[in-house]
Amino acid sequence: MTVELGQISLLAALLTALVLGLLPMIGSYTGNRRFMAVSTTASLVQCLLLMVAFGILTSAFIIQDFSVEYVARNSNSLLPMGFRVSAVWSAHEGSLLLWELILSIWIAAVALFSKRLPEVFRSRVLAVLGWISVGFLLFILLTSNPFGRLIPSAVEGLDLNPLLQDFGLIVHPPLLYMGYVGFSVAFAFAVAALLGGEVSRDWVRWSRPWTLVAWAFLTIGIALGSWWAYYELGWGGYWFWDPVENASFMPWLVGTALIHSQAVTEKRGAFGNWTLLLALSAFSLSLLGTFLVRSGVLTSVHAFASDPTRGIFILVYLGVVVGGSLTLYAARAPKMIQGGGFAGLSRETFLLINNLVFAVLAAMVLTGTLYPLLIDAIGAGKISVGPPYFGLLFTWLLVPIVLAMPIGIYSRWQQDSGSRLISKVRWPFLMALAVGTIVWIMQPDIGFVSAAGVTGGAWVILGSLFYVVQMMTSKNRISIPASVLAMTLAHVGVGVFLIGLSLVSTLSTEKHLRMEAGDKYEMAGYTFEFLGTSIVQGANYSADQGEFIISKGDREITRLYPQKREYAQRGNTMTEAAIDPGFTRDLYVSLGEPLDQNGQAWAVRVYHKPFIRWIWLGAIFIMAGGFLAAANKRYRRKMTAKEPVLTGTKEVTA
Amino acid sequence: MNSRIYPLLGFLLLIVLLVVGLNIADRKTNLPSPLIGKPVPVFDLPVLASPGQNMSKESLLGKPYLVNFWGSWCITCRAEHPVVTELAKLNAVYIIGMNFRDEPQDAVAWLKKWGNPYNVSLTDFDGRVSIDFGVYAAPETFLVDPSGTIVFKHLGQLTWEVVETEILPRLANMESGS
């Protein structure tokens, strides 16, 4: 009976979402305050109902109710408790429910924390979010109901996809969705601004903390996905330019442009249309990502569930949401260039470079992702656009960003002088060059491009840190604003990421070997000795476990135990790589296939990955910067439309 | 025209593409691969290294082998070459290089330059055998079991992942089955 209650909560949530979409919107046009006031209640009730629905599905997994089809497909009586919970969002139906739950949490948060906004504007924001929710709930109820019964009931479940039986999967999707879905708030703010013909830039300031939080979640969600792919897929890779990855990366790229563009619009009034369009695009790309992943249009290594009929629904939804908002943009976006003008060399210029490059990057990733589809559509055979295309693209487009980033920090709004900027950034630049040169001399193998990458990373880090140091040591300013700290943290993260990326992409070594017990292999000064395999039993799998002694010289460093697991219920095998992580290098061993009948010889993959941790460390810094910026007290001051907009040129934060 | 309408137009184009893509995805899922489970097409071709000598399908019965279509003109073949080389080093399967639509001297030079991973290379000069195999782009790779049946086909560049997840497990199955 309980799962039927879940179904009923979903239906009730749909009705609530309809109320949320309709009444406050009508109220905002007719001036009916009672209608507008419904928005808060409806938002909270909807969130509550979805929590109930989600809780019921979770409990069906915990008590292992195999009479529910979704549970029977994705769980098994042997599944450990932690994975029973994460199994809820391991497949299509549950993922969507999680998506919708997170949307309702965002909506409730907006309802609770935006009471100071003008009533009309706030009602419209919530109503727009209500409509987004209506669409998704319809999608779930009509095409992807997780509460469907299995008659007759199954005795045993099919088990959770072993790839997903992992800590990374417990946390990765919720964080990623927090980001994805969080962009719906910036989207709703932009739509409400367009609806109201909001020429003032207040809406931008109101939406900034929401955008920053969503972006920070997306950052860490993507980083976790990359980390998961690294240790779970067993190939030592951290990014595959896979359509599913690109789907999450595109909104991030646009989101990055958006948070910078918002700064310009809020402070200077310029880039108003950029900010509008980026806010619409970030969420549109999140939806597009959902479509690509869920429709089966593009096949990918982790297309977990796909179904063309569902694709049609999302496509219609996408058409309504994105098409509708872009039509609104075409009709209502301000025609005039707003805000003060700016000189060719000014902070605006640097942020314009940022907007342009990130928008172009997103467009290129979109093109690359959809290119196979285009080729297919015009019947020109099959071509896949792989890492070479994306890698080359990013290498070149990162150049202007990396060069401009530290200078942009020092630059002044409206107008600046070249000689002043040069004098400011001279030292960090020369020091970065020195760092790059020293690294190149010590590691000539990395080649020019990576040496340049290290230099660029050092340049970004040093340039950002010098700025803070100068601020601390200057006489007229004692305390450093939180926003400057946030920016510095995020930019240092970019530098750390860049150095890690440059080094790991050229210094990594990998080797596919045929190894028998007793065989040794030397790589990067480490000796990998294979001692053979033994059979180990897990809760719901049995595995061949290899044992390797890793030593450097005569000193044993560690022992690694990679596994080749056989999951009985689904009958699939998977590799569980063994990794010895380190700040400057990872050692990675992964067991392939047995190469003879008695299991003596194995295909073994051995990797040495220098500085790979820096990639994720950088992402953690970037995320922290985002959260710190969102926590700025400035956003919690009373938000009225009447508040005078800052126009001073003394403002140093972006 | 009002420039603010461009994003909308771009999006409409995208939607058209996605609708088409959706139809294709629908069709693709219903289309089984025609060659899997079928016997290897008949061939009797000169050996590249010694043109007087021929090798036929019949002489290969009884052991599994891999047929890798390549040409010196094919850029992707160059890209997959290290993978084929690594696979050859494992000694796990007999690898036939099917050199098609190529000048034999170019092919020999190519193998000399990059290394020869093949146990034997055959010359399919006019590409007739490649047509029987249904090859429409290089490289393509076929895994044949001891009874001469195609059990797996890979289109495009061979990656180590394909080797480990598709080819080696199938070979292991054949061994345990025989």
Structure description:
The complex is a heterodimer of chains A (654) and B (178). Chain A is an alpha+beta fold and 654 residues long. Chain A has 3 domains: 2-156 and 166-174 and 183-390, no CATH class; 425-507 and 615-635, no CATH class; 509-611. In chain A, 62% of the residues lie in helices and 11% in strands. Chain A has 17 helices and 10 strands. In chain A, the strands form 2 sheets. In chain A, strands 2, 3, 4, 5, 6 and 7 form a 6-stranded antiparallel β-sheet that branches. In chain A, strands 1-10-9-8 form a 4-stranded antiparallel β-sheet. In chain A, strand 4 and strand 5 form a beta hairpin. The longest helix of chain A is centred in the first third of the chain and has 31 residues, at 202-232. Chain B is of the alpha/beta class and 178 residues long. Chain B folds into 2 domains: 1-31; 44-177, Glutaredoxin (3-Layer(aba) Sandwich). Chain B is 42% helix and 20% strand. Chain B has 5 helices and 7 strands; from the N terminus they run H-E-E-E-H-E-H-E-H-E-E-H. Chain B has a 5-stranded mixed β-sheet with strand order 5-4-3-6-7. In chain B, helix 3 (104-114) links the parallel strand 4 (94-100) and strand 5 (120-124). Chain B is globular, with a radius of gyration of 20 Å. Chains A and B meet through helix 10, helix 11, helix 12 and strand 9 of A and helix 1, helix 2 and helix 5 of B.
Lay out the secondary structure.
The complex is a heterodimer of chains A (654) and B (178).
Chain A: H1 2-30, H2 33-62, H3 69-74, H4 81-86, H5 92-113, H6 119-143, H7 167-195, H8 202-232, H9 243-268, H10 272-295, H11 308-332, H12 347-377, H13 387-410, H14 418-442, H15 447-473, H16 482-507, E1 509-516, E2 520-523, E3 526-537, E4 541-552, E5 555-560, E6 563-567, E7 572-576, E8 578-580, E9 585-594, E10 601-610, H17 613-630
Antiparallel strand pairs in A: 1-10, 2-3, 3-4, 4-5, 4-6, 6-7, 8-9, 9-10
Chain B: H1 6-29, E1 44-46, E2 54-56, E3 65-70, H2 75-90, E4 94-100, H3 104-114, E5 120-124, H4 128-132, E6 140-144, E7 150-155, H5 160-177
